[in-house]
Amino acid sequence: MRDARPTREGGKEAAAPEKARLSVGFILARNFTLSAFSLFVDQLRLAGDEGDRSRQILCHWTVMSRRLAPVPASCGVMITGTADLTDPREFDYIVVVGGLLHSGPQLDQATIAYLREAAQLGVPLVGLCTGSFVLARAGLMQGRECCVSWYHYQDFVTEFGDIVPVADRLFVADGDRITCAGGGGTADLATFLLERHVGRSVAQKSRHVLLLDRARAGGDAQPHPPVAKGVGDERVRRAMLLMEQNIADPLAIGEIARQLGVSTRQLERLFVSIVAMRPGEFYRSLRLRYARWLLDNTNRQVTDIALDAGFADCAHFSRQFKAAHGFAPSERRGAHAVDAMEPRLAGFRVFG
After folding, report:
1. Where in the chain are the domains?
2. Would you say 83 and 94 are in contact if contact means Cβ atoms under 8 Å apart?
């Protein structure tokens, strides 16, 4: 951003306002995710000024859209841009907020050309949520690590066979490309950039006002890492994703088979041949793995964890957990505090 010129007050030259330490240009894809945008921009808003006055002093942000046309969020809310496409060199970062993947073009050709121009000028590009897909479709992620949500991992692999996605971290900074899985990780990425440009205390202030807990690092694990990576059979892969998406309220194996258009017996044969487990056993292992992640990474009560992992009561959960791991959930929580050698669960796979 340009430096403001000094003005005269009462015959004396007044000091020029402080130049913004962080300037961000937002590009909202059609049907973008509102939470990803709001979590990010609200931290800039709170960090940009003292108190809650929302002045753009320490931080400056611009929402760009062609001819200031309103852009729909996936929830139906319309956001009107504050500027047309602006000289990319005015920004420290250009942030692309993605959303629904298969609802038509996300950006027009002029905006895609603008992103390519920004990349050529060396302006860092950030992809939030499925903004990573937008950047990849524009040819701007070649040779880069690209972070995606575990939920969209297979979508990315299917569309971009030559780019290996990262789906077990919150966000990845690879040179002048930063990609974020979305969700709550968007707030952590905003904190990371605020600390880098404006300072730790200002970044913490934003989080405190928003009632956000401690900031997580980009390398922290996504709360629900994918398990279908490397599985070649489309039916088994889809079954695994259905299981992942229905942890707290597990689907019956017969219902999963019905959704896949196969018989329960055929689905069982496929699972045994590919992962050496029956579907029900795999599903239970997946739920127990998720419960173990919660035990290791949160302070939640064991009873709450049992319910979140799809077990009807704590006693049943404890028996299943001990049978699988050799120790009770309560014992795991006590041991984890001193178990520095335990590998991170994000890299664990319940098969092969």
Report:
1. 8-209, 234-347
2. no
pTM: 0.68
> Which entry of 59, 75, 129, 180 is annotated as an active-site residue?
129
Query: Residue-wise pLDDT tens for the chain (352 aa)?
Result: 344 333 444 444 444 456 789 999 999 999 999 999 999 999 999 999 987 788 999 999 999 999 899 999 999 999 999 999 999 999 999 999 999 988 888 999 999 999 999 999 999 999 999 999 999 999 999 999 999 998 888 788 889 988 878 887 899 999 999 999 999 999 999 999 999 999 999 999 999 999 998 899 998 877 765 566 667 777 888 888 788 878 888 999 999 999 889 999 999 999 999 989 999 999 999 999 888 888 887 888 899 999 988 998 899 899 988 888 888 888 766 555 434 333 333 333 332 2
Q: State the Cα–Cα distance between residues 109 and 115, nearest whole angstrom.
A: 10
Superfamily per CATH, domain 8-209: Class I glutamine amidotransferase (GATase) domain (3.40.50.880)
**129 a catalytic residue:** yes
CATH number of 234-347: 1.10.10.60
Q: Do domains 8-209 and 234-347 have the same CATH topology?
A: no
